Task: inverse folding
């Protein structure tokens, strides 16, 4: 009688297990690791029916865990008209793409897209209803900013949403206005929901196609576990369950219910199995730096009077987080600006004071402008972070020169400081905000090179081991799944990524 | 390097696996079976660190799977004042028990209990508000009938629920009335919710204590997996998750959301892991035979004008079941009376016609008065059943002599016919309606002996193998968990029950 159904040999395994860091072979049985070490030591686990996979000397890591993305949104966007940079470089390009889409779309059917990046356009401005009217007046058009924190609508869409000239700004949001006071067609934060919330995120068949597309994409870049950091529509739960059941989604998936959309879900963090499970409850406390909605203690570099938006007012955040914590949820709070990070830490501290709990693993998502004193406080409270390291490359130049100025901009995503303070932290891509490619994100964390080729804040460069942990062992801890994932150890899932180069030596 | 962390030897294993029915040893690794067969064949899987458990020749079966009970309700009731037979034999006994409870309960605090069985009391009648007023006028009192399908309240409770003399009967329910038209304090079916629904099912600490109590009870009778056949309050989800997390619940648990209470739960059957998962969506189409609310095609034996209650009207049931089926749920419908079974099969057939699906595993719960033509239809539609076999012993005499008459009463729970028609079926106890004890239920299914010692419908006696399957292999199929449970095979969970006698030989 034999055991292993698979034996991977002739590999260079980085196990991420400090007790057994390097191995040349790995045996698995029904998807679980039953041995990892020297090939000779694993012989006893094999027999004539064992499938032997010769890795030809390749480097192997634990399968990458993406701790913060929006898989269905990303998949849907992969299949949608491309209006982002560099596909489009001017507002006219965007209008042209959308006009093309409209020409083949039945009159009256809504058109949605994601990815407009105002500060990379030659025009360097937001879209207006006039721009989108030029694409079509016969289709409602709803376009999301690359950050997901702003959006744009044409007149047909505004009308469909019942937006009139005297519409009031919702709490935590804003309608940009023309001189007359009439909404310009550009919405910020919670005003996005006021307009876009009247449409389904996408039709069920589009959701399903998006889920399949993102699953395939994940496997192509070594991601074996993904996280939906804010399930934003109830129908998405069904899309995930159906996709897992019919195997069109082949990536393990953890769902963070978005608090605005979760209804009275009576369940909480932890329910689920190997393929699909419920993770943290997700709150959004502020916006996006490049949208000027991240909530900063001091004003923006090029707009000193602006310091962003409390998407959830501080007092309400304390209340919401405390209630979620009391119910036993792991809590994940989106906070980019340092004021939002203060608000979030206030909320975590209040919750923990009211209802002490060990091993809560509450998280700050993005955490980009975190200060040293805040890192100290995070360490004291046991708060973890999933850090948006891709910003260094994608927006680093603009953070330094435009949004935050040299001091705050160069310190964006201070990875060395996270390590120094002993804060468990992962890295993420937030796709569709930036593309999913863990090796690129690891490279960015380690090198801090911007899109323009500049070195941004060299003192905050991550060590390779820490950056790799940010997609493996540390990521598993943030997602509360280290019993199954993150390192290559006996008993854990045999999720592997095979590389053609070794990140520890290049 | 060794594999098995446990080796069970010297056992008489009935594996329920037709390819390998008998074994003497079983090896497990981290809770999974890695070998089952002759001890000598398992030696290769063991080593010095393997814990060897000598079973001393005992009989071993796959851990019992209870497919239909109400665990928290049962656990809470285990800890509550006992008002059922034989603790109480008269209405006066019940009043006395409740008066005792009231004397130690703060004034105004509600008192709840479950288990009054009118037709076993000397008085042979339902409780009234006057009876419960005699126990206390200072505490709201709410008592459930043993069936769970009727309930009783005192004046204080009726007042708290806002029940006035001119209250209308809700759809699918009834207020029994005094001659004046005033509600008597006895409610049927959905009227139970009108009154009892204003109270929490129990306080959180009582729910948690109940969960712990029922888990311990399960393990004592060999039940390693239990099913909550209708989660009736949102707070129960938290009780289950917390109990599993802190290991006060040590039994694998499958939850059937009760459709009236599920809110807009966006998830569906299948989400979950080894310990806690979501099963079927549960509907209740009729009531209880002994409460005269089971919905029969022909009137009750001793009340020919009564034929029960459509708790969900037939047309609405079609709509609800079709929608749940469309969303991908496994659907479980409580149906005791043959009219309710007709309604349920109409609903399943309509759903399958509108949205064909293989392997739906829709279930009829209880299915006690099923006719031969209905069994044919079930087989054709692929509908399964969880059969309330304990009724034979507990109410069989009364079914024959009082509620259903000799013909229908003797055929109650026609287990041989289920097998003959090839319908996958499990057995259940519905605790707290009857006690959880699978060996007793198996014995009842095989012997059909009533409480009075009569043999009821001998032609419907189950074979031992089929009755055992009703708590193991067939039960796993009904719960959609046969990949993990129900037989002792390599790869499945090592859930075992060790018996001191062999049900296949006694």
Result:
């Amino acid at each position: 009688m034999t055991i292993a159904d698979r034996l991977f040999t002739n590999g260079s395994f980085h196990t991420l297990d400090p007790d057994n860091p390097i191995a040349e072979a790995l045996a698995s049985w029904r998807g679980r690791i039953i041995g990892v070490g020297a090939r000779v030591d694993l012989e006893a686990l094999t027999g004539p029916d064992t499938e032997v996979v010769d890795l030809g000397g390749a480097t192997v890591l634990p399968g990458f865990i993406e701790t913060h993305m929006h898989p269905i949104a990303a998949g849907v966007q992969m299949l949608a008209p491309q209006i982002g940079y560099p596909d489009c470089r001017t507002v006219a390009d965007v209008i042209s793409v959308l006009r093309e889409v409209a020409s083949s779309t039945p009159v009256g059917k809504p058109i949605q897209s994601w990815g407009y990046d105002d500060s990379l356009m030659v025009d360097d401005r937001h879209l207006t209803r006039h721009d989108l009217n030029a694409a079509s007046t016969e289709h409602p058009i709803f376009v999301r900013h690359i950050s997901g924190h702003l959006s744009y609508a044409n007149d047909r869409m505004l009308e469909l949403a019942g937006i009139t000239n005297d519409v009031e700004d919702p709490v935590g949001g804003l309608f940009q206005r023309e001189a007359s006071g009439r909404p310009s067609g550009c919405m910020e934060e919670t005003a996005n929901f006021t307009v876009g919330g009247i449409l389904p995120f996408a039709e069920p068949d589009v959701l399903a196609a998006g889920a399949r597309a993102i699953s395939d994409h994940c496997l192509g870049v070594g991601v074996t576990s993904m996280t939906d950091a804010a399930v934003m529509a109830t129908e998405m739960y069904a899309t995930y369950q159906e996709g897992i059941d019919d195997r069109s989604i082949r990536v393990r998936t953890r769902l963070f219910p978005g608090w605005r959309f979760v209804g009275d879900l009576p369940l909480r963090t932890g329910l689920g199995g190997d393929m699909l499970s419920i993770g943290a409850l997700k709150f959004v406390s502020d916006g996006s730096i490049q949208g000027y909605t991240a909530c900063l203690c001091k004003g923006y570099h090029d707009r000193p009077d602006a310091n962003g938006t409390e998407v959830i007012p501080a007092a309400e955040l304390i209340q919401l987080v405390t209630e979620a914590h009391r119910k036993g949820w792991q809590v994940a709070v989106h906070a980019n600006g340092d004021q939002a990070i203060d608000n979030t830490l206030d909320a975590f501290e209040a919750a923990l004071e009211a209802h002490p709990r060990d091993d809560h693993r509450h998280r700050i998502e993005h955490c980009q402008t975190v200060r040293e004193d805040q890192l100290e406080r995070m360490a004291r409270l046991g708060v973890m972070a999933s850090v948006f390291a891709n910003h260094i490359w994608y927006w680093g130049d603009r953070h330094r020169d435009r949004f935050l100025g040299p001091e705050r901009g160069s310190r964006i995503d201070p990875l060395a400081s996270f390590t120094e303070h002993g804060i468990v932290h992962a890295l993420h891509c937030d796709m569709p905000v930036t593309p999913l490619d863990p090796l690129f994100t690891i490279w960015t964390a380690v090198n801090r090179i911007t899109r323009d080729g500049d070195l941004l804040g060299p003192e905050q460069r991550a060590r390779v081991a820490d950056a790799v942990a940010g997609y493996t062992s540390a990521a598993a801890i943030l997602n509360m799944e280290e019993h199954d994932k993150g390192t290559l150890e006996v008993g854990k899932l045999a999720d592997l990524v095979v590389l053609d180069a070794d990140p520890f030596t290049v």
Remarks:
- Chain A touches chain B at residues 1, 3, 29-30, 32, 34-35, 41-42, 44-45, 234-238, 241-242, 245, 263-268, 270-274, 276-278, 327-328, 491 (CB under 8 Å).
